[in-house]
Each structure stands twice: as C-alpha cells, then as structure tokens.
Write a structure and sequence with these properties.
mainly alpha, two-stranded antiparallel sheet, 2 strands
Amino acid sequence: MTELGRAAAVDGRGDLAKEDQVVHTTPVPSQQPFPWATCFVPGRRSELITPVGERLVAERCGRYAVGHGPVWGRADVLSYAAWQRRLGYTVAAADGSPGRSSWDRLRVPRTGRGAAA
C-alpha cells in the first residue's frame, strides 16, 4: 500500500494525519507532475527515475551504494523511504512508495520527455 489514503504524516501536535488531509502543493511548470505509483515498481525503467534519485541525494536521503539510474530498485525504495521519514511519515507509512504529497514536496524537475519509457 502506498502513502495515499492512509495515515502518513505527523501534524503539528504530533498526531497522525491522513494523506488526504495533508495540504498538496501544486507543482510549478518546471517540476514533474506526479506520475502515479505504476511508475515505481521494481525493475521498471523510466527516464523519470534518475532525476528522482538526484533529488533524493540532494535532500541527503540517497541510500545508493553505486549510484542512481533509470531502473526503480531496492536502493530507490530505501532512499524514498528516508525522504518520507524526513517529512515526518510514520515508519509504517514510510514504505518507499511515492505518493502525491511526498512527491510534490520532493520537487523533481521535468525531464522534458514522457515519464515512462
């Protein structure tokens, strides 16, 4: 299960907040819109995955032993889970599956081409 539709973030009082209660930011034209979870399955190749890894590294959440690339793998899941924890998601909600709210906050730049290859 992804972070969508379940308790996923901690509000200002330390209580869990549901994903649908978290304020979604509107991506600016220079940012990649949320491609939905079908892009993030193990072994999936996409030109979008490399910029995701670059942003995770820039946010100090990269968990890559070798480096990030165009195929979604275990290191990407671990890196994205680190990003979710940094945003305040619970351990259970920080599963490494991108959801709309955490995606918007990552600010992945547009690739200039389609999201999936």
